[in-house]
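Crash report, auto-generated. Payload:
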Amino acid sequence: MEFGKNELSERKKLILKAIVEAHIKLGEPVGSKYLMQEADIPYSSATIRNEMAELEELGYLEQPHTSAGRIPSELGYRFYVDTLVYQYDMSTKEAGELEKLLSVKKNEIDKILEKATQVASAITNYTALSLKHRPSAITIRKYETVYLDSFNFIIVMIASLHDSVKTRNIKLPFAVSSEMIGKLSKVLNDNLSGVSIEQINISIIMKMESELTECPELISIVVKNIYEAMNELGSEIKFEGVNRLLQYPEYSDLDKLQKMISTIEEKSDIIRAISTIDQSDDDTKIFIGSENMVKIMDDSTLIYKNLKLNGKTIGAIGIIGPCRMDYSKVLATIDKLSYEISQLSDIGQLPEALDIDLKIDGEE
Amino acid sequence: MEFGKNELSERKKLILKAIVEAHIKLGEPVGSKYLMQEADIPYSSATIRNEMAELEELGYLEQPHTSAGRIPSELGYRFYVDTLVYQYDMSTKEAGELEKLLSVKKNEIDKILEKATQVASAITNYTALSLKHRPSAITIRKYETVYLDSFNFIIVMIASLHDSVKTRNIKLPFAVSSEMIGKLSKVLNDNLSGVSIEQINISIIMKMESELTECPELISIVVKNIYEAMNELGSEIKFEGVNRLLQYPEYSDLDKLQKMISTIEEKSDIIRAISTIDQSDDDTKIFIGSENMVKIMDDSTLIYKNLKLNGKTIGAIGIIGPCRMDYSKVLATIDKLSYEISQLSDIGQLPEALDIDLKIDGEE
DNA sequence: TTTAGCACTCTTTTTGGTCGATTGCTAATC
DNA sequence: GATTAGCAATCGACCAAAAAGAGTGCTAAA
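Recovered output after restart:
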């Protein structure tokens, strides 16, 4: 062989690429005859067979059994993806779905992510996921309190990140006055604005207790709630189109499917796996088969990309499906989507807000 | 036959009950021999066969094919459920899960419902659902505004029903002052407190516009957002444990399963069906097979019960599974759960709030 | 009225064999 | 030396026939 161990001949590349694409399209092992006749490989089936045998030896292909054709190995998919210059033309319908995304009326991250997963799943026909970012990035920019009665009040927290809002209803074991709750909000704003979750420590808490001399007990109750809220504001993973998994024969094994759906419903495994990915990384990440850190997903592919808004990473979006995945389409969708979202902030909800009429019942 | 058409002999009842229970346990048609040997029916298989033939004639049993045993028909299940005095002893583990439910720290309906579905699904091992109530019942008891900058503010709405809170970030196409936003909150509280979604009409809107003379454009923008928020506050359906469906051979037909999961993900069909159920009804409702209003669920059973808190219906909880369902267990769980929730308000989060320490990092 | 027994029916499992697809190898050809 | 044609070998998919198994309905006896 005149090539180094990492270098495939052009003909091998051509054949490997054709095999991957044929397998993505058909979902079945690909044979030499098919490649010659249908995939326009300009060699005889025998030549192709020889090449396939070598590609198998090199680890790019696998043979389910002797009399079947070949399917790409993980290495084969990896090679294909790495050399893929993805060129996928969105149909007008698909472009339209992306348009709709732009019409999200809300400027909250949650809404953007939710819409984005819906669109991603609908366009690609795979299961989509979105991830909101880790709590360490979260700080509360403003606290507001709402007095309900002497035992109940609400605390409204506005996160530094794109004005996400979280509220907590707090029920007290003792009575407080409306003024006290008002003062509480000042103490919180003075001491906990812009403070991240790790920075909340006992000294800050004691300082606040000393500032709220009339009722220091309030502080510990409130701080606990704020802590929880910051956690909830911080990270969240959501899935859309889980049912689409069922379309693919790869998941027709009920036992596997059950495990897969459990894993998705359970979420924690996937969160853990994804959390290891660099938040600041701009590239689209592709995990094929066992490259995935979740065991159950070891014959699935996860494609994943961070989303930025106003230059900051607000979360991520991903697609889960069989290794045999329409990579071009998925990559194009993910990229387009993340680009559109990055552009979103300039437009905001301005046009929507201008377009208000009084016929409110015309909604939904 | 010495009995009226609606009256089964005791022996028939015994046999029918044994058949239903055996089928629930095994998931397969039950034969006369099994009933005699394993289910302790004190008659010979021939006698049992005769009774089974009559029960089939009466419509309580069905025979998938000649040489199979019998399975209960919908009527059979209905009979079983109607005569069922459900006596199900919760194991300590299950009771423990219910205990945990009590430890929900929050007093918001959403949290209670979420936890309740989780517990219900875990204990029964079927898919659980919860429903939050229809928007017509929702009014906003208090409005609060939070000024962010001259183009952005947040509106916080506290619903009359158990202080659920909803916030909306509003981005304006024109600048406003902090004072203006403060005044807006007064106008909203004066005019829209305690007003239900149907009662918002043009005359109220115009009245508010006249009261906010400095900037009447604000009103229509805000009202639209309030309208949307009230809708979102109003009703919501959630599912838990969808993957549990896969355990049951009834759903091993992939096509059916796909439709079922789609229906669940899609939600709207189920909401529509459930919406027809009387909100004030205290009984546990059981829809067996074609009694269900959702086509795709016509060989599933839906068990459903309204949840009350402080005497008011706050939502409902349900279980979805195959007709062959462990009715005793499910009914006991649903009833216990709804009872526990109805007791919840007295306890509230008081003990939790009292039990606060400063070691915040011990969480999760 | 109940039960034992048996023929009958229908599904499930097993078996055996054919068919078709694909490969690897060898020999011929370019 | 590279490519190709041809062919035997392999193995799963498919099908039909046979066997096994489960359960019933019916009849006759207890």
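Post-recovery validation: The first helix of chain A runs from residue 10 to 26.
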